[in-house]
Amino acid sequence: MAFGQILLAAVLGAVVGVERELGAQPAGLRTHMLVSLGAALFTLAGAGLPHTDPTRVAAQVVTGIGFLGGGAIFKEGVTVRGLTTAASLWVTASIGLAVGLRAWQAAVAVTALTVAVLWLVKQAERHFLQLRRNLVLCVALKNGVSLDEVEHEMLRVLPRAKVLRVTYAEHEQVIEVTARPPTTASLPQLAEALRRLPGVAGVNVSG
């Protein structure tokens, strides 16, 4: 029975890991399989010892997975990435724990719901919520261009833009702003409109 539980934990962890792998996330197939396997084995080992409370073992697993999830989170400019992957590792650990405690139906149901949240909800966000997200734009200026002049022109394209940071390099200066995109333009159209502004050398847009 223990071998079957470990095998099921690996399979369920792999189901979540495949979705992360296809999305080119920092933690993919192998990481999620190992997290689920480890959580299941810790639970099985704890449950097999006399006078041992499996919930205490589960609490230690949850604490340990926090360090692993923290490694998947990193800051890129003004945005924080990896939170969803860290959450998927946390959920995968709970799936392994459930398998170790023989809560088969709960483990399978949570696996299915996790994949649904990671993939189906992601598709819904792209189609219905994309226009509500703030964008982060890095606008590189040409040499000798007035920063105030470009900022004034930029506000015509993005009326509610907020300047986050201005970076001065040897040969260029970059304005980093955040703004909610207009509903009348796609991201490529928005980037092209900004690139055509007087004094703008290049534009980098991220959601």
UniProtKB/TrEMBL annotation:
Keywords: Cell membrane, Membrane, Transmembrane, Transmembrane helix
Location in or out of the cell: Cell membrane
Presence of keyword Nucleus: no
UniProt domain MgtC/SapB/SrpB/YhiD N-terminal: residue ranges: 6-126
Primary location recorded for the protein, binned into one broad class: membrane
Membrane topology of the entry: Multi-pass membrane protein
Pfam families documented for this protein: MgtC (PF02308)
Similarity section: Belongs to the MgtC/SapB family.
Name used for this protein in its record: MgtC/SapB family protein
Organism encoding this protein: Dactylosporangium fulvum
